[in-house]
Amino acid sequence: MANQKTAGRQNRGIKEALRKSMVSLKRSPQNIPLAALAAAFFIYSLNLSSIAKTTSRINGANMGQCEFAAMLFSILAFVVFLRTFPRRKPANKVMLGLLFFMLALLVGVDIIYISRITDALTREVNPIQVSADSQFINTAKSVVSAHVICVGITAALLVLLPFYSKAIRKINTSIEVEGNGSMGAIDISGED
């Protein structure tokens, strides 16, 4: 009997946590693309050593600049994102345009970086061979490709934000209180 009460309390706690997170999401649906942008940043920054080793090993044209620009615009995109959606105000259209520009730059420098890796691996004269000690090249190529995908998902989520935010707002997050339906009207007129 005690186990059922404990399980019921835990179940209510999980439901309440889900309800609170849904209420928070209804108030700030822009947190969904922000989470995608954060995932893109963490994917790139946590694998920066493989990317740096690849840049050093291949030493292709503008690879270092692409790596630097990707980190810089990833960080700046967070700042611009937070300025784009001020609390309880409509989105700042100028900052939104700047955010899309930064996302496009991120995709552009990543595509240049991937093309430099591909060129180095497939060139006719002295191509770079990926061996056990240079496996970081494949890792860097995969990470940069995943970064492009995450940035693209972020841009798509930003474009679709007006549509899915309406759907999220329609979700019922009200709490049913027991005995609330049997309450009578309260007379506040002050007459006896």
TrEMBL record:
Transmembrane intervals: 62-82, 94-114, 144-164
Keywords associated with the record: Membrane, Transmembrane, Transmembrane helix
Presence of keyword Membrane: yes
Domain of life according to the entry: Bacteria
Protein name: Uncharacterized protein
Upper classification of the organism: Bacteria, Bacillati, Bacillota, Clostridia, Eubacteriales
